[in-house]
From TrEMBL:
Belongs to the class-I DAHP synthase family. It comes from Kribbella deserti. This is Phospho-2-dehydro-3-deoxyheptonate aldolase. Pathway: Metabolic intermediate biosynthesis; chorismate biosynthesis; chorismate from D-erythrose 4-phosphate and phosphoenolpyruvate: step 1/7. Stereospecific condensation of phosphoenolpyruvate (PEP) and D-erythrose-4-phosphate (E4P) giving rise to 3-deoxy-D-arabino-heptulosonate-7-phosphate (DAHP). Its EC number is 2.5.1.54. One of its GO terms (molecular function) is 3-deoxy-7-phosphoheptulonate synthase activity. Residues 51-345 form the DAHP synthetase I/KDSA domain. NCBIfam families: aroFGH (TIGR00034), PRK12755.1 (NF009395). It catalyses: D-erythrose 4-phosphate + phosphoenolpyruvate + H2O = 7-phospho-2-dehydro-3-deoxy-D-arabino-heptonate + phosphate. InterPro entries: Aldolase_TIM, DAHP1/KDSA, DAHP_synth_1. It comes from the Bacteria.
Length: 361
């Protein structure tokens, strides 16, 4: 039976300029295949992340990379450098490359490579999805596990099979849609505290995502579907600081662990060294990471990971159509340079080894 939309045009799409067909997940995945070798990289990455979170692997996870990828070539050069460092430090660190494509905006601004790959407001989402998936496969081909933030609830159908660690951001952690989404995702998910500093909200999100849900979405063919999830027991807390200041000190971490304990959840945290914890100053990230590392070295087993914002060139730049962009520099939040990042990773590695030595002494 052919279904015809009989809704009068006077009451629908009054503010829609045009509708562009979206490539289906099945079409995109068929064109950009996750082969057996890359599949094993994803699965090995997920197992490693889960083992670190559960404490069966005593390494420290480090999710590190650009605030948001805007240039695939620069991101791959970064991946090449990170791969060398990850191998060198692999006895103490589990390195996951941060490959973020979607940017939540408080007001206005560039929404990320998937939504606007040309960086000009043209909004060619089909091209953005293809560019993003191609880049993810290239990063995996280098043997690096990938971390992404999930913002749009449809996007995971196109890229989630490549991701070893996911995040729900501070602005969406209270969203029922994102809690339901997390309950069905196949990888561990970090829940960030709200920008106002509320950790209880993230703890609620972890509890909500751990149980089954039923909600609407799309299937691989792009058809509307009802999704029944099993619940995701690998969700965990990410402390990212607040608008009012940091929350990575001993007292803040202990307070977060108490909230997790009271909720009957595993006492484990990942600490973001950027955002509120660095007071949005990329030059403070190394000192924040050093203070987190000191807690790790002193034997804190609850700190299972650290997040860092890093790119080839330090700082940030504005999108300006009148001038050429600086290669390898962020167009969103300011990042540490690669040279600084390498030094921070080395110090975190030493902290992880010291924690292990103290545990076995």
């Amino acid at each position: 039976m052919n279904l015809v939309n009989t809704t009068p045009t006077s009451v629908v799409d009054r503010r829609i300029d045009k509708v562009v067909p979206l490539v289906t997940p099945a079409e995109l995945l068929a064109d950009h295949v996750l082969d057996e070798r890359l599949t094993e990289t994803v699965l090995a990455g997920r197992r490693a992340v889960t083992d670190v979170l559960d404490g069966t692997d005593d390494r420290l996870m480090v999710v590190v990379g650009p605030c948001s990828v805007h240039d695939a070539a620069a991101a791959l050069e970064y991946a090449d450098r990170l791969k060398v460092a990850a191998e060198r430090l692999s006895d103490g660190l589990l390195v996951v490359m941060r490959v973020y494509f979607e940017k939540p905006r408080s007001t206005l601004g560039w929404k990320g490579l998937i939504n606007d790959p040309a960086l000009d407001g043209s909004g060619d989402v089909n091209s953005g999805l293809r560019t993003a998936r191609t880049l993810l496969l290239e990063v995996l081909s280098r043997g690096l596990p990938v971390g992404c933030e999930f913002l749009d609830p449809i996007t995971p159908q196109y890229i989630a099979d490549t991701v070893a660690w996911g995040a729900i951001g501070a602005r969406t952690v209270e969203s029922q849609v994102h809690r339901q989404l997390s309950s069905g995702l196949s990888m561990p998910i970090g829940m960030k505290n709200r920008p106002d500093g509320s950790i209880a909200t993230a703890v609620d999100a972890i509890r909500a995502a751990a149980v089954p849900h039923v909600f609407t979405g799309i299937d691989a063919s792009g058809r509307p579907a009802i999704l029944h999830t099993r619940g995701n027991g690998d969700c965990h807390l990410v402390l990212r600081g607040a608008d009012s200041g940091p929350n990575y000190d001993d007292a803040s971490i202990e307070g977060a662990l108490e909230l997790l304990r009271n909720a009957g959840l595993p006492e484990r945290v990942v600490v973001d060294a950027s955002h509120g914890n660095s007071r949005k100053d990329h030059k403070r990230q190394p000192s924040v990471a050093a203070e987190i590392g000191a807690q790790v070295a002193a034997g804190n087993q609850a700190i299972t990971g650290v997040m860092l914002e890093s790119f080839l060139v330090e700082g940030r730049q504005d999108l300006d159509p009148t001038r050429e962009l600086t290669y390898g520099q962020s167009v969103t939040d300011a990042c540490m340079s690669w040279e600084t990042t390498e030094a921070v990773l080395t110090d975190l590695h030493a902290a992880a080894l010291q924690r292990r030595a103290g545990k076995t002494a």
